[in-house]
Amino acid sequence: MLLLDKAFAVYEAAQRPDLAVKLRLLQGAYLEATANQDKALKLYVAASQQYVTSHFGFIDLFDRAVALMAADDKQAMKMKYLDYMVKAVPKYQGEFNRETRDVNDAYIHVVKAYAEALEAAGKKDEAARWKAEAGDKRS
């Protein structure tokens, strides 16, 4: 693990969250391949939360976390995670986009996942509100 720590320190110093995200994905894939799904899930959740505002490639980490929370016994955890992420991901990807009102694609992705989870949980009204937020007119 010491080698990974050094790599992440280098990426941090170089301000390369894109490389850190890729390395976390590889680390998570290794954990999944070695039947360590719980460790992989913790890694994906922590890394996606860490990079949610610094690199929009966090979506791959986010998707893996959501996929590993598909089991019925992880639904409460999934809802808590999605609730955190939908509030953490920036709606706009910078000042320029905020001025032109171009919504961040990563925001839309997270909002849609949250709306789907709410709908599956039977919270149809709340799901419809989030779908509207994502620009999805279907309910």
Write the SSE topology:
Blueprint: H1 2-13, H2 17-33, H3 37-51, H4 58-68, H5 75-88, H6 95-100, H7 105-120, H8 124-133
Helix pairs in contact: 1-2, 2-3, 3-4, 5-7, 7-8
What does this protein structure show overall?
- With 139 residues, the protein is an all-alpha fold.
- The chain has 2 domains: 61 residues, no CATH class; 71 residues, no CATH class.
- It contains 8 helices and no strands.
- Helix 2 packs antiparallel against helix 3, helix 3 runs antiparallel to helix 4 and helix 7 runs antiparallel to helix 8.
- The longest helix has 17 residues.
- The chain is flat, with a radius of gyration of 16 Å.
- The N and C termini lie far apart (46 Å).
- The model has no long low-confidence stretch (mean pLDDT 88).
Strand content: under 5%
Amount of helix: over 70%
* C-alpha end-to-end distance: 46 Å
Give the total of domains: 2
The outline comes out as flat
